[in-house]
Specification:
Keywords: Cytoplasm, DNA damage, DNA excision, DNA repair, Excision nuclease, Hydrolase, SOS response. By secondary structure, the chain is an alpha+beta fold. The protein is built from 20 helices and 18 strands. β1 and β2 form a beta hairpin.
Length: 649
């Protein structure tokens, strides 16, 4: 492991200008590429105290052996150079937004005399018009098959086309009117290209005029008593409408935009992109990647847009507007620091101005909320897929055993977390994982009393003491029973009948040491204790001055994080419940004649105590079951409480 101070540039030697920098390892290989508006400020941040760096950043600077930089004239040049170098050197510490799959697109081969429609995956080529990407190939094929009755264009390969051209008869699609059969001369190349042009217009979002035209032709055919043609047009119109319904109409102004949203945790980032063309969502993409460091959403936006649209620009082979690598608008949750430079760079890729902005209201804001929900769902599903994988769980337990030097794999793990509001309403949760999966029936929660005002370390000690005192008591009561974990009276498992192999506490060394001290005090020796510090995801052993660092890709670290997050969620839920009860009790319990049923009815009707306090006597008495006298008492009590708060303020 290299010491960053050995290759730190001399003070004042780094220019205060925009540029791009490269970290190299001892062999000269580039391990990280970054850009900065101010090179001196950015590079100095890498040589700060190692303990304050994000684990991935700390690993990078201790892997590197040198750093170099290139000064450029503008931030736009820095963006371009950073993208080119990341692509050229493929640095191991740069997060790459690569798809784990190739998304299907609809390709129209306009570079052929008889254009062909087909579902396609892979790099884009010049002279071919693409629509998409789409999340599912089967849905795209289904839509294409539906539209072929309206736009009977060629879908066969070159070999099939030549074979039927030589045979002088069309294929099955030609016989069922899902192909205009240009191979046998039913339509001329120009007529077929016109059909393909209408198909492209439809997929580009220009659907309303086409639907109105078909309606006019259908009505005209019916008036002229051409009922067979009218019926065929009716079926075509129905197929068009079904195809339109398959793509939700989200915006009514023909918006051409990409909507980007993020969901993050301490280790990973989920990115979701919705492609909106002609006011409709035409496709979406999703990524889940390792988080580079603790940077916020603006920095994530900057890095993602640079890599994504840089790659799109290289893949795009056509200059037509519908095939442009960048849409007219890019909607993001937060603007990056160098938003103007990023806008200019995106505009250069598109060839016209590109708007980069945060939607504030209306349909676009609603769509952004939908994309954000999808990003969160993708991150959650990613976690569940990992948790549900038996092989991954087994590997995580084995890795924990090796990393913590345990005598056996920790098949039962318990985690303790504390929650409070500035020392009030202090509660704790205890969650249980068995074989790497949550066992929710054994979750427990604690309202703390003795150590509530003494800080988290004392609170952790109290919870551990209460939990294992209960375990010792139940073990003693069971005696030599053949089923020590089962209550003989109820036949159900005892609450604290089993001790864990591993106890995890939310915190660092002091919390782990406190928990281990309680176990030693109670004479329990077969339970290992660790603390998991949230900021840097460090694993602390009791009385150990240095933490154990698990690799970011470690399945064991993911299991510990999942355990800690579940304990935090359970504790927060209990804390909110207690706080809500306390706030309700302090305000309404003293109102004469107001029982629990009517109290609940009032809170349900008004939604919160604040809105109830603002309500008039008439509004309160309008709640079913609440008379005017009770309403006056409620109003008087809440008014007095508000006055008391004002005096305290």
């Amino acid at each position: 492991m290299a010491d960053p101070s050995t290759y730190r540039p001399a003070a004042g030697s780094i220019p205060e200008a925009p540029g791009v920098y490269k970290f190299r390892d001892p062999t000269g290989r580039v391990v990280y590429v970054g850009k900065a508006k101010n090179l001196r400020s950015r590079l100095n941040s890498y040589f700060a105290d190692l303990s304050g760096l994000h684990p991935r950043t700390r690993q990078m600077v201790t892997t590197a052996a040198s750093v170099e930089w290139t000064v450029v004239g503008t931030e736009v040049e820095a963006l371009q150079l950073e993208y080119n170098w990341i692509k050229e050197f493929d640095p191991r510490f740069n997060v790459r937004y690569k798809d784990d799959k190739s998304y299907p697109m609809l390709a129209v081969t306009l570079n052929e005399e008889i254009p062909r429609l087909h579902v396609y995956r892979g790099p884009q080529r010049r002279g071919v018009r693409y629509f998409g990407p789409y999340p599912h190939a089967w849905a795209l094929r289904e839509t294409l098959d539906m539209l072929l009755r309206v736009f009977p264009a060629r879908t066969c390969t070159g070999g099939v086309f030549k074979r039927h051209e030589q045979m002088g008869r069309p294929c099955l699609l030609g016989y069922i009117d899902k192909c205009s059969a240009p191979c046998v001369g039913r339509v001329s190349p120009d007529e077929h290209r016109a059909i393909v042009g209408e198909f492209c217009d439809f997929f580009a979002g220009r659907t309303d005029g086409m639907v109105r035209r078909l309606e006019r032709e259908m009505n005209a055919a019916a008036e002229e008593l051409e009922f067979e043609r009218a019926a065929r047009l009716r079926d075509d119109l129905s197929a068009l409408r079904r195809a339109v319904e398959k793509q939700a109409v989200v915006l009514g102004d023909g918006t051409d935009a990409d909507v980007v949203a993020f969901a993050t945790d301490d280790l990973e980032v989920s990115v979701q992109v919705f492609h909106v063309r002609g006011g409709r969502v035409r496709g979406q993409r999703a990524w889940v990647v390792d988080r580079e460091n603790s940077e916020g959403v603006p920095a994530l936006v900057d890095r993602f847009l640079t890599q994504f649209y840089g790659g799109q620009a290289e893949a795009a082979g056509a200059a037509a507007e519908d095939a442009a690598p960048v849409p007219r608008e890019v909607l993001v949750p937060e603007l990056p620091d160098d938003a103007p430079a990023l806008e200019r760079w995106l505009g250069g890729l598109r060839g016209t101005k590109v708007g980069l902005r945060v939607p504030q209201r209306g349909d676009k804001r609603d769509l952004m909320a939908t994309v954000e929900r999808n990003a969160k769902e993708e991150l959650q599903q990613h976690k569940l897929r990992r948790a549900g994988d038996l092989t991954a769980r087994s590997a995580a337990l084995q890795e924990l055993q090796d990393a913590l030097d345990l005598p056996s794999a920790p098949l039962r793990i318990e985690c303790v977390d504390i929650s409070h509001t500035q020392g009030t309403d202090v509660v704790a949760s205890l969650v249980v994982f068995e074989d790497g999966l949550p066992r929710k029936s054994e979750y427990r929660r604690f309202a703390l009393r003795e150590a509530a005002t003494e800080g988290d370390v004392a609170s952790i000690a109290e919870v551990v003491r209460r939990r294992f005192q209960a375990y010792l008591k139940e073990t003693a009561e069971a005696g030599d029973d053949a089923k020590p974990g089962i209550d003989p009276e109820t036949g159900k498992p005892r609450r604290f009948a089993y001790a864990p192999n591993l106890l995890v506490v939310d915190g660092a060394g002091p919390q782990a040491t406190a928990a281990a001290g309680v176990l030693a005090e109670l004479g329990i020796e077969n339970v290992a204790v660790v603390g998991l510090a949230k900021r840097l995801e460090e694993v602390w052993l009791p009385d150990d001055p240095d933490p154990t660092i698990l690799p970011r890709t470690s399945t064991a670290l993911y299991l510990l994080q999942h355990l800690r997050d579940e304990a935090h969620r359970f504790a927060i839920a209990y804390h909110r419940q207690k706080r809500s009860k306390r706030m309700t009790a302090s305000e309404l319990d003293d109102v004469p004649g107001l029982g629990q049923t009517r109290k609940a009815a009032l809170l349900k009707h008004f939604g919160s105590l604040r809105k109830l306090r603002e309500a008039s006597i008439e509004e309160i008495s309008g709640v079913p079951g609440v008379g005017r006298r009770t309403a006056e008492a409620v109003r008087a009590r809440l008014g007095a409480a508000a006055g008391t708060e004002g005096e305290r303020t």
